[in-house]
Amino acid sequence: MTATPTSAAAEAAAESMEDETTQIARQRFTEAKRAERKLGLMLVAPAVVLMLAVTAYPVLYAMWLSLNRADLRRPGENKFIWFDNYVTVLSSPIWWTAFGVTALITVISAALELVLGMVLAIVMHRTLVGRGLVRTSALIPYAIVTVVAAFSWRFAWTEDLGWLAPSGSAPLTKFGSSIMIIILAEVWKTVPFMALLLMAGLALVPEDLLKAASMDGASAWKRFWLVTVPLIKPAILVALLFRTLDAFRVFDNIFILTSGANETSSVSMVTYSNLIRGLNLGIGSAMSVLIFITTGIIAFLFIKLFGAAAPGSDAGGRR
Amino acid sequence: MQPVTTNRKLMWWGINTIVLLYAFIPVFWLVSLSLKDDQTLNDGKYFPTSPTDDNYLSIFKNEDFVRALINSIGICVIATLVAIVLGTMAAYAIARLQFPGKKAIVAMALLVSMFPQIALVTPLFKIETALGLFDTWPGLIIPYITFALPLAIYTLSAFFREIPWDLEKAAKMDGATPYQAFRQVITPLAMPGVFTTAILVFIACWNDFLFALSLTSTSQARTVPAAMSYFTGATTFEKPTGPIAAAAVVITIPIVLFVLVFQRRIVAGLTSGAVKG
């Protein structure tokens, strides 16, 4: 800032004109600001401390553990071994199979959920009758305990027992059909959540705009692609990002449906069984760190690819 | 746009029916399994032919299940209450006050909500064992609060932004004390948001399986979802279908009640945090 002499002189004059009352008022104002800052920090402190203590600290600790030999069965042999645990994990076919399975489930279920979620969102948004009823029932899959739903699918597909199981075959004992059932269970559970996020976006599309497009002769299909989709793109991206990260964590459904049999383990399943059966904290921590990094990469890619529309980019600025 | 004709109404009823079937078929399947007796259990039929309440009687006689139910209720209620108190404080500050680091806190909450919980299982197992928190209520309550906080902060700050806070000033001008202004003007306006958030947080805690499975080793703190996976039948390899189905139905009842009674609020809560967050 280059202040011209005249403006500087004017400022000085204005300052000298300031009487005591305005100075006191200004002082009060800054005191109030300081008090507000202090109150703000005090109010967020407990939540922040807890979140840091339960996530940041264990992650750092896991990073440290992952560089050590830490086998609970051989407590005497703990020592710093650099990246040996990572070499062990990354050269293990079990890890890569699980990684592939997780990626497969994530991509297919996120894609299906986006399409079906959009359909359900439109139904909930547009239905002329029984809107409350539709919304209430759509909330059931969202709210039900994942393990409960998983047991329902497992029993349904168990030979003899289940109403869906074809006689003479056991779909949950084969890789392909197991993966399909896991995806079915994931999709059933999360389509409503996806639909609710998308519906929130649909509610923001101005009705006039759709009417105008309709007057101009745009078909329903064109209205959807050329008016609705561009307007609700932020909602789509938020929903897709959250679901992708969520699908990548898939655990409950696989644990109940197959227990990871026939190579249907996800990375979460492998990490869990390593802890429970292997009791090897070094290897387990290396897996934890790898999952953490992968999640970070997915989130980063989403935000890079979709830029300003990504969540968080304007999170602090909104009022 | 177009006039509402009987045909269009009928079409929508048809579509609505599909949604209803989609949502309820897997749920009713569990209900009917839980009502089947031993003879008809393996008949593969969707509906029970000779309904019985044996499975329900048996699980409520099962000490592990009753204990798990108490654990589930106690742990989730405490975690919800604490998360709501901490979340309300933080959300109020984020929605109403100016202070440094606000953006960083919002970003941190977002990061925690995207966090892969499995990445915590191994280190938390080690830390909780060292601190004596493994297989205790606090050992589950603490991670539950942590992962509920982002949800609570986002939903609550979205609600708090909608409150006409000037009313508080107006009440004070009319002679109300700061406490009265807060208690009688602001609290009634804020309560629906707080209540809605509490339901969402409770549903999230109630649903947890991973922590319940890895941070417990006995029925002392094991919640129902984890306990269900440990139910044993006549032999180790046989899963007791009937009792599992009955237990599944029991823990679904509160969820269904919440959804039926508070549908509007749950939808508002889930969408408010989403659009603005």
Structural overview:
The complex is a heterodimer of chains A (319) and B (277). In chain A, strands 1-2 form a two-stranded antiparallel sheet. With 319 residues, chain A is mostly helical. Chain A is flat, with a radius of gyration of 28 Å. In chain A, helix 4 (93-126) packs parallel to helix 7 (175-202). Chain A has twelve helices and two strands. Chain B is mostly helical and 277 residues long. In chain B, 76% of the residues lie in helices and 0% in strands. Chain B contains eleven helices and no strands. Chain B has helices spanning 6-35, 54-61, 63-96, 102-114, 118-131, 137-162, 166-173, 178-207, 210-214, 224-230, 241-276. Chain B is globular and about 75 Å long. The interface between A and B is large, with 106 and 101 residues.
Task: Give a summary of the structure in a few sentences.
Chain A has 319 residues and is mainly alpha-helical. In chain A, 74% of the residues lie in helices and 1% in strands. Chain A is built from twelve helices and two strands.
